[in-house]
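Researcher: Next sequence.
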Amino acid sequence: MNTIAIVGRPNVGKSLLFNKLTGKRLSIVEDTPGVTRDRIYAPCSWAGRDFLLIDTGGIEPHGMTNVPDAAKRPLSDTPPEILSFMRKQAEIAIETADVIILVCDVRTGQTAADDDVAAMLQKSKKPVVVAVNKIDGIGPPPPEIYEFYNLGLGEPYPVSALHGHGTGDLLDACLALMPEETAPPENDGAIRVAIIGKPNAGKSSLLNRILGSERAVVSDIPGTTRDAVDSAFENGHGRFILTDTAGMRKKSRVDEAIEYYSVLRAVTAAERSDVCVIMIDALEGVTEQDTKVAGIAHEAGKPSVIVINKWDAVDNKDEKTMQRTVDDVRVKLAYMTYAPVICLSAKTGARVDKLFPLLADCVEQSRRRVTTGQLNAFLAEAVAR
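Model: Next structure:
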């Protein structure tokens, strides 16, 4: 399937445009730079053409950490290593996209940050469509739009991500530059896997290990992952749609509206999944928060696999350490006796390959139908006892 990537400097309305074009609130929208950090994918269609739309984090230009201008302000609350990851994620999206939408802000005009992103896009040799956002009025576009010709990327298209004005012309321009459509891969029958857990349990590390690439930002900073990120994967055990989710902290520690919606999306991802992977830190064991996270999958009636991660970091292991750890999980998550437990290391990849047979088996068991005759026989035996 052809892809269109939405890129630009922070806080120009990329996620709002993404949500408007897809018709779903998939990306978190907040008037705070640096909210979107990972690449967010969603199917989209226009004029009979189906394609994949990619939302990216804002590309923060190098060397702009002390620029006072509000239009060029740095993401002061975002750690430098996260900014680097966000830029890398955007670069990967640019590399994999067939067409790129560069979003600019008419209210701030053309900035040095826009020039930096435009230069990056020109080096990519990919077709680019410039979308000048926040033109919310009806009628002829304001004269300020014409300065964006200076980016050297062709005609700028006036759009309003808030109201949807101009998005049709924008998509028409994108489709005109898009190569002939190839047959989309079949996704029917794919198993949806939600990876849930508290922060820093290794959810994004496990996703990256499975995919063999840096699909999600990995950092020791709690709250790095905010959106629920879907990734397709296939091996000998079947096709899987893996969803990395935000870490779920105690409500008393959720002090940002952004994080609140992140956790809400993690819960939604668990509810729409076929099976949940519940990540637990081997160094901390099962905590009170782990029991609450596991309870989300349990109450949703989802089959689950309990993954004890960071097994490589456990000191003084012997032949009984693993069994003692599993027994401790069984005691503290006594309401989930049906869930298999596996110890692995997302960092080294040890025992990760053993996860997929468990996932496939859990889904198969959850889809098994018990006939009326089997149920009656079971109840008759229970009554006799």
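Model: The longest helix spans residues 80-96. The CA atoms of residues 9 and 60 lie 6 Å apart.
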